[in-house]
Specification:
Number of helices: 13
Structural class: alpha/beta
Distance between the termini: 23 Å
Bound molecules: (4S)-2,6-dioxohexahydropyrimidine-4-carboxylic acid, zinc ion
Order of helices and strands: EHEHEHEHEHHEHEHHEHHHH
Largest sheet: 8 strands, parallel
Shape: globular
Radius of gyration: 18 Å
Length: about 350
């Protein structure tokens, strides 16, 4: 399986996790290739840091017989944007694509105003970038941190509401159209029926666009976050049961293209201080089992857990191995992370 969305930390965040540990746990879940996100500390926003990351990740992945790729992160500096696009073209597929945060999340890499987003995408259009631009779609202007009550993690979905994601997806699709962006727009971890509908519409309109979804958004809803011991706070947040069901159905019917873990470990102390992100690859196994039981064909599952990542990112085709013992593997994986988000049922 390919996991196109992980946060492997290390460096100044070794207390959260090391690359070696993250890869080892991913491998135990049956994942053979990961795409690491750029909101590391320091962030993957310049050539030297990207190269450092690749040497660390590639060395660790090689020991395990795995594949390791990174996203280069975008800032609002247009010279930096151009440099990262050229670095991606030079080092593809090691640098598998570009990542832009449209709102702040862990690492505060948000390019939150529409004007900046338009200038960045406009620069990519101008230089003819044709690779993947992956976005974290939430709209800072519609978020209201004052609505979050730390005693009830379900309120995170009030502070970062569904409309925030929908508005952000609509905005970035419009920007890509209007600037003549020639690359492939990937919407990470969609959590709402509204965002899924927008992606569907853009696809029907001929746009190069895809969407990913996580196990937690497909299987859990904001009510599940009320029990704060589960630590279920992440960006984007868990939504209503009907959004959750829309994400699950979209995985079955093809409106969502691929599964991403969004593995995002934090220390227990950081979680207690409100860090967003949940760790682990067990959710991926749980989702595989649930989709199988819901009647997904093995072909559809291979698309969701690997083949569509290969197509979207234009990697060399390879076999995708789907564990048929997802449940057994789920229990075998060590569980050193501070919160265990999923209970098998
Ligand atoms: O919940 C999240 N955690 N969402 C993100 O966008 C980043 C991630 C992290 O790195 O902790
Ligand atoms: Zn993420």
């Amino acid at each position: 399986m390919i996991d196109p969305h992980v946060h492997l930390r290390d460096w100044k965040q070794k207390d959260k996790e090391t690359v070696a540990h993250g890869l080892r746990v991913a491998k135990a879940a049956g994942i053979t290739r990961v795409f690491d996100m750029p909101n590391t500390n320091p962030p993957l926003t310049d050539r030297a840091t990207v190269l450092d990351r690749l040497s660390l990740g590639s060395a660790e992945a090689r020991k395990l017989g795995m594949g390791y790729h990174v996203y280069a992160g975008l800032t609002g500096d247009l010279a930096q944007v151009e440099a990262m696009a050229r670095l991606r073209d030079e080092l593809f597929p090691l640098v598998v694509g570009l990542k832009m945060f449209l709102a702040h999340s862990t690492g505060n890499m948000g390019l939150v105003d529409e004007e900046t987003q338009r200038r960045v995408v406009g620069k990519l259009a101008e230089i003819g970038y044709r690779g993947v631009l992956a976005v974290h779609a939430e709209c800072e202007a519609l978020n209201d941190p004052s609505l979050f009550d730390p005693a009830d993690l379900s309120t995170h979905s009030l502070a970062r509401p569904a409309a925030s994601e929908v508005m952000s997806v609509a905005g970035i699709v419009k920007i890509c159209r209007e600037t003549g962006f020639k690359g492939h727009l990937h919407i990470c971890h969609v959590s709402t029926a509204g965002a899924i509908a927008l992606v569907k519409e853009a696809k029907a309109d001929g746009m190069r666009i895809s969407a990913g979804a996580t196990a937690h958004h497909a299987l859990l809803c904001s009510d599940d976050a009320r029990d704060s011991s589960r630590g279920l706070k992440m960006n984007p947040p868990l939504r209503t049961a009907s959004d959750r069901d829309a994400v699950f159905s979209a995985l079955l019917d093809g409106a969502v293209d691929l599964v991403e873990s969004d593995h995002a470990p934090h220390t227990r102390a950081d979680k207690e201080k409100g860090a967003s992100g949940i760790p682990g690859f067990q959710g991926t196994l749980l989702l595989l089992d649930r989709l199988r039981r819901a009647g997904a064909s093995e072909e559809r599952l291979a698309d969701l857990f690997g083949k569509n990542a290969i197509r979207t990112f234009a990697l060399l085709d390879e076999d995708v191995f789907l564990p048929d013992d997802a449940k057994a593997r789920f229990f075998e994986i060590d569980d050193e992370y501070p919160c265990k988000p999923f209970l098998w049922s």
